[in-house]
Amino acid sequence: MTYKIMHYINQFFAGVGGEDAADYQPEVKIGAVGPGMQINKLLEGEGKVVATFICGDNYFATHTEDVLKMYRSALEEFKPDMVIAGPSFYAGRYGLACGHVIKESFDVLGIPGVAGMNSESPAVEMFRNDMFIVKTGDSARDMKHSLEKMAKLAQKLLRREALSGADAEGYFHRGIRKNYILDKNGGQRAVGMLLEKMAGKDYLSEYLQPIPEKVEVAPHIEDLSKATIALLTTGGMVPFGNPDRIEGSSATKFGVYSFEGLDALETGKFVSVHGGYDTSFAYQNPNRIVPVDVMRELEKNGKIGKLHEYFYSTAGTGASLLNGEAFGRSIAEMLNKAGVDAAIMVST
After folding, report:
1. 304 partner at 20 to 30 Å CA-CA among 7, 32, 57, 234?
2. Residue 205: exposed, middle, or buried by beta-carbon count in 10 A (0-12, 13-18, 19+)?
3. Are residues 163 and 236 located together in one domain of the fold?
């Protein structure tokens, strides 16, 4: 028996285009497209991609219900045994689309699905309890390894084989715990882990609980008319030429740029290198990303005491949590030394 697979991919992996084609409307193609061809090879005849559902990331995000309605029709037409989505790595919009289509597949046909995402994709926390999300690297460089893990898990699910658990199978924990019998009791296992830890050896806790960093909320500013305010952005705004070579995605650095003496950022002298949104609006008027013009008006009208003469910028798309934390600490230290009272993180 050859199992039928429906594969979901975005416009980029379908070969349609990048961000310029993010509004690409949904389309169904017979057979495998892009990564789906490798999925067919990995399944070794046991499963086959019978149809590929393609949609632009922006279009899915802004027309979700309409896309899912068309997707339901495709499910009814092809009646797949499983849906594979992505891998989307840590692309935010793509990951959300993958989560939606797999959840829809289960709701409509009751079939399983496998997605592939990086741990920092926002879709992981949204959908991990509803589906199997295989852990992937941060970009398409990990495509081969990611597809191998996804295909292996897909085969087990199609065969209805017992799974060895999230860590062994390489997917994110789904919040499901099962009882099983071990040779040693809890006390013996705990002492064994303690001895391994004391000896500097690797050990694995039986209950891993992520503990997020706790950041205390700063006290509010009682009198803004006496406060110095700084502007921060993850919109990738930099001086023309990008002197610090900040990456448009997966940024490993941030920049600090002066606008001393300016009433507004000048068109052409400041540009956005961000790789995750349409930057043409930022090129037309950089103050849309770093609103120096508006802040100057507030300064002149006495609404704020002073505008800090530097803004702090990086590109947020695909940024790792570790880098983000490091940026935040470094920028906070700079702001404190400069006597800044508050900062505005401008949205893109």
Report:
1. 234
2. exposed
3. no
